[in-house]
Amino acid sequence: MSVLINQEELFQDRVDNEIKIEPRDWMPDAYRKTLVRQISQHAHSEIVGMLPEGNWISRAPSLKRKAILLAKVQDEAGHGLYLYSAAETLGTSREQMINDLHSGKAKYSSIFNYPTLTWADIGAIGWLVDGAAILNQVMLCRTSYGPYARAMVRICKEESFHQRQGFDILLTLSRGTPAQKEMCQDAINRWWWPSMMMFGPRDSESTNSDQSMKWKIKRKSNDELRQNFVDMCAEQVKVLGMTLPDADLKWNEAEGKYDFGEIDWDEFWNVVKGNGPCNKQRLDARRKAWEEGEWVREAASAFAKKQQQKQKQDKAA
Amino acid sequence: MSFQIRKFYYGDIPEDKAGGAIVSKQTANDWPLWEIFIRSKQGLDHKHVGSLHAADAQMAIENARDVYTRRMEGVSIWAVESKHIHASNPDEATSLYEPANDKIYRYPTFYDLPDEVGHM
Ligand SMILES: [Fe+2]
Ligand SMILES: [Fe+2]
In this predicted model, what pLDDT tens digit does every residue of A18-29 receive, in sequence order? Predict the structure, then answer.
């Protein structure tokens, strides 16, 4: 027993000293479990996140916009793969994670359960959704688990293009016809609050946070990140000549930050629990893609086996 | 129910020292796992960038191109099936590297030479 306590102390000591934890190092069971849950959720979010945007690839207003959107969505697939790999270093399997997503056991970011109604939504997603994700991911570049941190560094390098292309879409609309301007403001209105919810429950409500901070999985609290997000967007929206849909949004001179209104937490929990506008549609799409890819996976395995046998025969001959 | 580790931790991991749950799996339908190494430009070493699943080596290289070199990050790719990688044990790190610990005479700064020698 004393050996185990020693291991935990040693582990915490390494974390405190900013020494990264690597796959083969000893780690507390709960640390491993927390990471598997968090990283796989993150991976699922990248993968499911392709669906609302994918909806507009064939409807992009120009070839240039279409090529950019394709590249962006492909990046998200890559992000999912980096993260699945990182989670696998902890002893879970890809199949297990995919099963958990499809069975509804594993969560993904609720933001992707909202529909993309107009082209301006693609701009709003890039600016607000990727923008919120970046704040979280920049923090995670310094997370204590090595493979997760490395995946995050790779992801962050690619994310700023995502946010900029989104802002660029909105900027173009904001300088367009009255109808385009209206479309731009409407998209911001619909995506603002769901984006604010991306940071999760308030610090006072969030149960996992303290331990995650102690283990340096997370480095900033939900509320801290959310404040950063508000401060960033409240300034950027001025460049668009648009507004954020929050009557309580006001610069607080004394504290050097923006005050803002309360999130609709009933909506938040409702979408988390699976009752958002597109929860069912998203999961159905993922399951369908998996099932329809079955024959490809089987054929590739069969082909690989055949090639191996052929190689063996050639060697024997 | 059969217990197995699907990811080989860049080598193999003693179960009793894993510090927690090893996920149990009944099926093994995933394609094999490959570790990917990329040379970012001529003259530099290949460097480990991550891993991916693929049915065979050729698919591993093609997937690595799509996953890890979308922005010209590489000019050469190595793919090694993860199970073929053997790793040193982190628990033995102290004793494993101990012999190098007390040989400070291996460093140039160990030798105090007169200034007249100049740069050496
Ligand atoms: Fe992403
Ligand atoms: Fe992104």
Answer: 999 999 899 999
The residue length of chain A stands at: 317
Q: Which chain B residue is nearest to residue A26, measuring alpha carbons? A: B19
Q: Is it the case that residue A2 has pLDDT exceeding 80?
A: no
- Chain A residues whose CB is inside 8 A of the B10 CB are 23-24
Q: Which residues of B touch A300 (CB under 8 A)?
A: 31, 55-56, 59
CA dist., res. A221 & res. A227, Å (int): 10
pTM, two decimals, is: 0.88
Mean pLDDT of A65-84: 97
- Return the structure tokens found at A136: 């979280």
Q: Nearest 5 degrees, angle CA A274-CA A278-CA A281?
A: 100
Residue B14 pLDDT > 70 = no
Measured CA to CA in angstroms, residue A55 lies from A43, A159, A194, A213 at distances of 20, 20, 19, 37
Task: ipTM value, please give it.
Answer: 0.87
Q: CB of A117 within 8 A of CB of A190?
A: yes
Bridge partners of B50, per DSSP, are B36
- Residues of chain B contacting residue A306, judged by C-beta atoms under 8 Å apart: none
B79 phi/psi in degrees, rounded to 5: -125, 125
By Cβ distance, the residue of B49, B50, B56 closest to A304 is B56
Contact between chains at B25 and A96 (C-beta distance less than 8 A): yes
